[in-house]
Amino acid sequence: MKPLIQFKNIVKEFDGQIVLKGINLDIYENEFVTLLGPSGCGKTTLLRILGGFLDQTQGEIYFDGEEITNVPAYRREVNTVFQKYALFPHMDVFDNVAFGLKIKKISKDIIEQKVNRMLKLVNLEEYAHRDVKEMSGGQQQRVAIARALVNEPKVLLLDEPLGALDLKLRKEMQKELKRIQQEVGITFIFVTHDQEEALTMSDKIVVMKEGEIQQVGTPTDIYNEPINEYVANFIGESNIIEGVMLKDYQVMFEDKKFECVDFGFKENEKVDIVIRPEDLNIVPKSKGKLKGIVKSVLFKGVHYEIVVETRPGTSITVTMDVKDDKPIVNESAKELMSANNFNLDIEDVKELTDAEIIARADAQAWSSETDELISIVKVSHDIQPHKGTYPVTFTTAAGTSCTVNMIVKDQNRVESQEYAEEIFAEDFFKKVDEIQDSVALETDLKIWANAQAWDLDEDIPVEITTVDYDFDPENITPGQYQVTFKTTGYEYKVHTTDYAEVDSMVGLSFDPEDIHIMSKETFS
């Protein structure tokens, strides 16, 4: 197979210092490639040379068979998410994300649908009209990610885009970025120093050190067959738990006190605790320092990879009502239109806009000849802030129209007082072909149900990590189905030669020297 991108003997020198020492690398279409290494290894420099923001000192770059050294950045078929957010300070969040679509002269309602979907994906739907200068660094980075993804470039370059995000959101975005890459079918080139991030997301990992490539391979190859000691030490897996360093040699996590070998932290300092999977042992629950339920068991050849949940997450179940309605046909205008019934909370009625109604109903109109989308110019309704069913009619300029029902009801929320979490989701309506055509179904289910979760103490988003459903997506038929969304509790990955049954109660044991204490800024 012909490479999409080829680096041939790329050398880069800054003020007499060589930072890239003859890089040779092939990247193929639809790959998720991660450049992995510590700060200063040259990974960002290589990315910027590909993006056209730096010139190489020596060597050549080929893109789809053509040498692009002299092609300016704006003409290269790539979009970049920088470490520096590079947002437009005079625009709000929505307009920052929509900027590229507006340049392409895409219709307003389609822009709103695409932008709202992206804002939902990065958990910023409530900040659409917020001044970007008023947002935190992590929020600004999410805006930058949404702005790049909404344009669906041929190649997306990402320079540590998740580094500013908190741990829970970063893990959610790892999954979403991978799913988006698979859905749109483009090449992602991702720069990170986080080995767990690389192993989670990549088709190919390029491990770098001091301007040279150490090893190129799949995550399995890199992890199981490292080429040298550097790669072996750099690649690994860890359980990272939030905790408090009570005093020297004593730490608290999961509301329990544990002896450790670390010292020199402030008393009651918030820390991250690292326990490697190979340092945990499965024991009878009566002998464990922690107790939990085995959630999954995977045989890895030499050992089992066992996930033990010591604290369940918060969950909520909604109903998905699946229909097999055919689109409305306007033969004279050669237009088709479809829309779904949808639910709405009473408290959201007052701030409801036409664009949001279109998005919630997934209302679309398109040409029967070209399949190109057609703008919906009118939304007619008489929605009141009272429980009930209200008709909504969508109309195009040519008169094609479709009427569905909006059901106004009380909010569907579940609150866990014990763990200070709240989760929210709505019943929703879909068509058979929408389910069957979904490439990233779990992501779509979360979007369709408007599923969200919060930490009630800190008022920050909580990751929804599990989506369970009772249907076969490929063979679904009209009817009602249950969909359950669940947040992560505390889970530990264990590498062991001992087998444990799924759903069995077990204990986890470890020694004080197995607990590694890290300052919070270590993982920022």
Describe this structure in words.
The protein contains eleven helices and 36 strands. It has 524 residues and is of the alpha+beta class. The strands form eight sheets. The chain has a six-stranded mixed sheet, with helices on both faces. Strands 13-12-11-14-36 form a five-stranded antiparallel sheet, with no helix packed on it. A five-stranded antiparallel sheet has the order 15-35-16-17-34, with no helix packed on it. A hairpin with a 4-residue loop joins strand 25 (388-396) and strand 26 (401-409). The mean pLDDT is 89.
The count of helical stretches stands at 11
Instruction: Give the biggest sheet.
Output: 6 strands, mixed
Gyration radius (Cα, Å) is 25 Å
Overall pLDDT score? 89
Please report the distance between the alpha carbons of the first and last residues.
39 Å
- SSE-based structural type: alpha+beta
- Principal-axis shape: globular
- Write out the strand line-up for the largest beta sheet, numbering strands in chain order: 6-7-8-3-9-10
Helix content: 10-25%
- Which stretches are poorly predicted, pLDDT < 50 over at least 5 residues? none
Strand content: 35-45%
Record field, number of beta strands: 36
